[in-house]
Amino acid sequence: MAAYGRARHSGQHFAANGRALDFGRQWVRQHAGGIEDNRSRNRNKTFTAKAPMTDRLQLLSAFNTLLEPSRFKDYGPNGLQVEGAPEIRKIVSGVTASRALIEAAVAARADAIFVHHGLFWRGQDGCVTGWMRQRLHLLLMHNINLFAYHLPLDAHPELGNNAQWGQRLGLQIDSRFGEQLLGCMGHWQGGHFSNAQALASHVEAVGGRPVTAVGPADMPISRIAWCSGGAQGYFEEAIAAGADAFLTGEISEPQAHYARECGVTFLACGHHASERYGAQAVAAHVAQQCGLEHQFIDIDNPA
Description:
By secondary structure, this protein is an alpha/beta fold. The protein contains 11 helices and 13 strands.
């Protein structure tokens, strides 16, 4: 009885194995393409894993060494604002850590984002709701690091917003002015501008957007001061430093009166437009230094 039972059990076992083998062969025939696709994806992942990379803290150190944030009194934290993946292969740079930029970085498979305008500023209420929750959710869900540098990025003598903007406008810096010496003073490489309209037309051609010009219409312009972004508060110091014209991103109500009364041209060239250049220059420089991939993504902003 025991021997018969063992023989019967063995026969059932062999039959079950045979049915399983037939089912396995059928499944392989039906899904062979999918297996090959998965193998291809795995091969691609293996290739990606061999791409140059750096550690998050090494990248932070490279940015800090270049921009020296400890030198500045700023309106928010400079450096790593949101922690993501420890290994970084691709950096996306942009002006502002908007949801649109974060979504574009996700699509570009970036491990880090480098911006001028980060998420956190002095005076915020600290609540993670609305737009703040949406942006943080995307960063954390996709394990993306966010690096942000404000005034240090404006001030770098070669790669900063002011230096890069001036370079594109053909302006040569010969002195600095203003709080923390963020303002630049110099002259146009082409000589001088015949009047405010000539300067405004030049800035519009370079920036690709209209500017607002206030002040004397017919005076020649030789000495030009500039400071990117929302630096309209530097206008009086630019006047005191001997500028014929001052360029920045925005204008507030008092500056129109100062321009007319002091005989100095004021040009509001767009906050975003005047700060498109520093983040991409710094990120490209550090990415090359670390052997990483870099992509600048410009999210259009009429401000």
